[in-house]
Design a protein that fits this description.
Elements lengths: L6 E6 L5 E7 L8 E8 L4 E6 L6 E5 L2 E8 L2 E5 L1 E2 L7 E4 L2 E4 L4 E4 L3
Antiparallel strand pairs: 1-2, 2-3, 4-5, 5-6, 6-7, 8-11, 9-10, 10-11
């Protein structure tokens, strides 16, 4: 997270049927997850990071990019506007930018 108090992890279940996005409050309790969101392996996640400007979570993988917000112990998917195909991305204060892509903007509540 932007303040360094949260750790983000993406992992695969032992059976290989689900992936999990996991957030830890690593300084308080490094071995107990603060929040977990399980997702099907149909859209395999390759990378995840916190947005350094607002602590929202960004994941990308096989043919997708997704945006998430942490609400207590719940990781909630939020609407994002995704443009063209891209290979890599970087977070900027004004939105998410990718190579060979348009800027991506997060939806408003």
């Amino acid at each position: 997270s932007s303040g360094g108090e949260l750790l983000l992890s993406v992992g695969m279940s032992n059976l290989g049927t689900e992936q999990a996005i996991v957030v830890y409050a690593w300084e308080i309790n490094p071995f107990t997850p603060l929040a977990i969101h399980s997702t099907s392996c149909l859209q395999q996640i390759f990378a995840a990071c916190f947005n350094p400007y607002n602590d929202e979570i960004i994941t990308c993988g096989a043919e997708h990019s997704k945006f998430w917000r942490l609400h207590g112990s719940v990781i909630e998917e939020i609407v994002g506007e995704v443009g063209n195909e891209f290979y890599d991305w970087a977070v900027h204060e004004s939105g998410l930018c990718g190579t060979r892509a348009e800027a991506y903007k997060l939806g408003k509540d």
